[in-house]
């Protein structure tokens, strides 16, 4: 919707509220449910441009410039910026744009603070259907929390208070006369776009920062002066709501920390708490994530089934450890893969089991069902990049973005290097290394895009750090997976995606029954296979125990997990005395 | 003396069949009598009472009853753990009743699995158990060695995603030979759970079979690297998944006759009827 000069947008309508004229902007079909977007400080309605465009596909989207900002009129007195007036503005806009139906409020920063005032107003449910709050707590709740922490000054409570104080330095500065307005006027308004880009990673857009920034920022200081101090002392009121509230906490918010909303369920018992991997200006940096979360929430309040991540975020619901999680396991038709699928199912997860043997994958999915969870079986050759991409697309479309991906598919190969053919090398690297690369890429991208974190488990081997003349190709492939995982962990950490490397050791699984041996004839292959299988069976370390370790690794975010005692001892040796292992590599075992 | 031909007459087989029918009938009655709150000991005693009332004189081994995760032998380290315990039956629990009554030297050895109330895992195991009965008979008829059949059963267990629970039995056996008992000594006296007359017969069989390089016990070891000798074999595949175990045990007739090398002594048994009912549904 073009409105001429992008810097100065004409309002679609003007709403009068307590002597103030509010500029209101509308998008989408007015026949749809109304979503009211409320901006923060020192922004205008344009902070919502990206989100509004996405939401307008299915909602009647309304934004407005709050009093003192953008095209709305700006009263001069500090007392005219009191929260009760701001809440009245919100109700006035809601009345004007959706007179018959309550609206869904989505609000950011100061917009969220004033929306809390409206939402906790007695009778709010007649005008408001749901509230999605981003980075803006209820000041009364914060006031109660501060008093409670001061009355019980345990080290933990004091640490949390000090932590938030460090993030709230600007609030104190805003209380001082002259300084803050002068800084805005003389310097910051001109530099704001640069500061946002440098500090917050927010690139400037057509409408943001608004051309009215200088005056918006200066007047908006009144928000802090009119409302802050009164609430944080004895002035905190009891403000509760029965409305459904979705709290979205940006993980990298420099101003509003998660501790500020601790215990909100006392005031808002119908609470969903979600984290998005972003900074404070998430409506600008991650409009798609915010639009998706808002849509999921509004649809769910309207009676539709909740998305998996939304279900998981509901506060006060008892659930199994991995309930409402989707786990994808490759090579899940047998051994460690199957047992991992089953262990996650027992912890409540839904499981997508894939295997080169589709029948075996389906069987695993069936067993997941027997354990009381939901399982889906797929045939998948992990060496085929386009097949893995298609698989990831299909899984995402049918079941959602997975929360945990276990790249487990692998094959065994033994025999001396000089007898290992190029074909052997390709086969081993294709499955053991490329399979993991394809899996990490196809699903990692989607996890990052979703912005709600995730977990990748790569099953390597004790051979990743234990050199032996018997397993050159296999050990090389696993060492590569080990290093790949270490690098990937570094990269994905900022997206709250964990990476674990599992190094099982000698475990009795199918891998020995399908292993190949370089330089051995057909009969010799069979003999070696039987011998290895017998050896592994006598070792009698079950894949189920490895699966338990994998689930634990995800629970605790362990980076590297050697599983069997021999894997642990050699892991230690590889750190303490690699020369010992190099010497041992000369021994012929198989 | 083991032979290449079946030693039993039709009349003998009929007597074996009758004892097996009696054993399963008593197990079914005991299963129907079970309810939450009953202990394994009470269940085993009830089973024994019914068998004796049915005319049983001696036992190949004492009646067993296992409840809950004991049906999958979880945490079993020593043979004494097989004996009925004070484990109390609860709603949703699986159970296994196992008995081996003897009448006039004719021995049966049966295993009966069930559950009290709902148990999804048990239902799956029960349905899949059918494949083992078909697989074992087919492989025996094809003349495979016992250890080879054992390994194929293991492979099926792995494909199913279950685990082998018969490997917990002494000697890891999935089956053992049954002969008509001719022994001396008091009936009904047991040692380590086995009737003393049984121990005599078993000992004699073990020695004589071993002299022929064979074993009356069916396991995955070298001693079982031969096709089953003609006679009666009590076969007891026992599979588990998580904390649920199930088994059946019944007599397989190995004839030594290439025209009809083997067959199950009786198809009119509770587990077979269950599968037929499932198929009909």
Describe the structure.
The complex is a heterodimer of chains A (590) and B (281). Chain A contains 21 helices and 17 strands. Chain A is α/β, with parallel strands linked by helices and 590 residues long. Chain A folds into two domains: 13-313, Rossmann fold (3-Layer(aba) Sandwich); 326-584, NAD(P)-binding Rossmann-like Domain (Rossmann fold). In chain A, the strands form three sheets. An eight-stranded mixed beta sheet of chain A has the order 1-2-4-3-5-6-7-8, sandwiched between helices. The N and C termini of chain A lie far apart (72 Å). The model of chain A is unreliable at 1-7 (pLDDT under 50). Chain B has a single domain, classed as Creatine Amidinohydrolase (Alpha-Beta Complex), CATH 3.90.230. The radius of gyration of chain B is 18 Å and the shape is globular. The interface between A and B is small, with 13 and 9 residues.
Oligomer: heterodimer
The CATH homologous superfamily of the largest domain in chain A is termed: Alpha/Beta hydrolase fold, catalytic domain
CATH superfamily of chain B: Creatinase/methionine aminopeptidase superfamily
Q: How many separate domains of chain A?
A: 2
Structural class of chain A: alpha/beta
Q: Largest sheet of chain A at a glance?
A: 8 strands, mixed
Global morphology of chain B: globular
Radius of gyration of chain A: 29 Å
End-to-end CA span of chain B: 47 Å
């Amino acid at each position: 919707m073009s409105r001429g000069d992008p810097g100065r947008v004409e309002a679609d309508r003007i709403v009068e509220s307590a002597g103030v004229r509010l500029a209101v902007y509308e998008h989408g079909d007015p026949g749809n449910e109304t979503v009211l977007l409320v901006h923060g400080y020192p922004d205008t309605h344009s902070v919502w441009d990206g989100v509004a465009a996405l939401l307008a596909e299915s909602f009647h989207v309304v934004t407005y410039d709050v009093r003192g900002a953008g095209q709305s009129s700006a009263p001069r007195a500090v007392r005219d910026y009191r929260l009760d007036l701001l809440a009245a503005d919100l109700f006035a806009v809601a009345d004007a744009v959706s007179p018959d139906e309550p609206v869904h409020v989505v609000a950011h920063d100061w917009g969220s603070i004033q929306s809390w005032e409206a939402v906790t107003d007695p009778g709010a449910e007649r005008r408001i259907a749901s509230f999605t709050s981003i980075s803006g707590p209820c000041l009364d709740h914060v006031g109660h929390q501060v008093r409670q922490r001061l009355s019980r000054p345990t080290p933990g409570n004091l640490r949390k208070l000090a932590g938030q104080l460090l993030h709230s330095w600007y609030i104190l500065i805003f209380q001082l006369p002259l300084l803050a307005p002068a800084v805005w006027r003389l310097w910051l308004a001109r530099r704001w776009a640069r500061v946002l880009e440098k500090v917050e990673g927010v690139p400037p857009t057509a409408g943001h920062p608004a051309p009215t920034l200088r005056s918006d920022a200066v007047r908006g200081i009144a928000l802090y002066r009119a409302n802050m101090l009164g609430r944080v002392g004895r002035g905190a009121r009891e403000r509760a709501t029965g409305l459904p509230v979705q709290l979205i906490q940006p993980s990298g918010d420099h101003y509003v920390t998660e501790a500020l909303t601790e215990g909100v369920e006392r005031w808002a018992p119908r609470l969903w708490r979600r984290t998005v991997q972003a900074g404070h200006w998430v409506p600008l940096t991650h409009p798609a994530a915010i639009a998706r979360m808002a849509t999921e929430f509004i649809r769910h309040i309207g009676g539709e089934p909740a998305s998996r991540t939304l279900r998981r975020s509901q506060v006060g619901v008892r659930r199994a450890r991995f309930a409402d999680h989707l786990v994808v396991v490759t090579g899940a038709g047998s051994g460690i893969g199957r047992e991992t699928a089953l262990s996650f199912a027992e912890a409540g997860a839904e499981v997508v089991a894939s295997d080169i043997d589709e029948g075996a994958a389906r069987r695993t999915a069936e067993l997941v069902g027997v354990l009381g969870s939901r399982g889906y079986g797929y045939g998948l050759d992990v060496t085929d990049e386009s097949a893995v991409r298609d698989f990831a697309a299909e899984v995402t479309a049918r079941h959602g973005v997975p929360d945990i991906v276990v790249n487990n598919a692998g094959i065994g190969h033994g025999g001396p290097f000089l007898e290992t053919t190029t074909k052997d090398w390709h086969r081993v690297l294709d499955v053991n290394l490329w399979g993991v690369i394809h899996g990490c890429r196809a699903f990692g991208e989607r996890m990052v895009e979703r912005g709600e974190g995730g977990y990748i488990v790569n099953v390597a081997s004790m051979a990743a750090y234990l050199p032996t003349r018997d397993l050159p190709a296999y050990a090389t492939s696993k060492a590569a997976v080990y290093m790949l995982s270490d690098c990937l962990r570094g990269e994905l950490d900022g997206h709250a995606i964990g990476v674990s490397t599992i190094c099982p050791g000698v475990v009795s699984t199918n891998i020995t029954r399908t292993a190949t041996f370089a330089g051995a004839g057909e009969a010799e292959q069979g003999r070696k296979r039987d011998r290895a299988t017998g050896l592994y069976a006598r070792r009698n370390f079950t894949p189920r125990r490895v699966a338990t370790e994998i689930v634990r690794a995800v629970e605790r975010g362990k980076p590297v997990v050697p599983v069997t005692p021999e894997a642990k001892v050699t892991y230690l040796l590889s750190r303490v005395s690699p020369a010992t292992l190099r010497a041992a590599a000369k021994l012929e075992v198989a | 003396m083991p032979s290449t031909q079946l030693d039993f007459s039709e009349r003998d087989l009929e007597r074996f069949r009758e004892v097996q029918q009696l054993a399963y009938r008593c197990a079914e009655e005991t299963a129907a009598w079970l309810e939450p709150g009953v202990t394994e000991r009470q269940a085993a005693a009830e089973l024994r009472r019914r068998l004796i009332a049915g005319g049983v004189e001696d036992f190949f081994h004492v009646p067993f009853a296992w409840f809950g995760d004991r049906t999958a032998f979880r945490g079993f380290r020593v043979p004494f753990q097989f004996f009925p315990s004070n484990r109390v039956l609860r709603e949703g629990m699986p159970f296994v009743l196992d008995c081996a009554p003897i009448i006039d030297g004719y021995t049966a050895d049966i295993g009966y699995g069930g559950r009290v109330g709902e148990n999804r895992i048990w239902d799956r195991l029960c349905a899949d158990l059918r494949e083992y009965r078909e697989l074992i008979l087919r492989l025996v008829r094809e003349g495979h060695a016992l250890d080879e059949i054992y390994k194929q059963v293991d492979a099926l267990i792995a494909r199913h995603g279950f685990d082998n629970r018969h490997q917990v039995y002494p000697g890891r056996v999935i089956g053992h030979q049954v002969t008509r008992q001719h022994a001396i000594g008091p009936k009904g006296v047991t040692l380590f759970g086995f009737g003393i007359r049984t121990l005599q017969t078993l000992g004699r069989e073990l020695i004589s079979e071993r002299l022929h390089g064979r074993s009356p016990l069916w396991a995955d070891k070298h001693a079982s690297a031969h096709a089953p000798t003609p006679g009666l074999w009590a076969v007891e595949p026992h599979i588990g998944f998580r904390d649920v175990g199930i088994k059946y045990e019944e007599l397989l007739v190995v004839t030594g006759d290439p025209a009809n090398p083997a067959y199950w002594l009786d198809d009119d048994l509770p587990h077979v009827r269950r599968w037929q009912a499932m198929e009909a549904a």
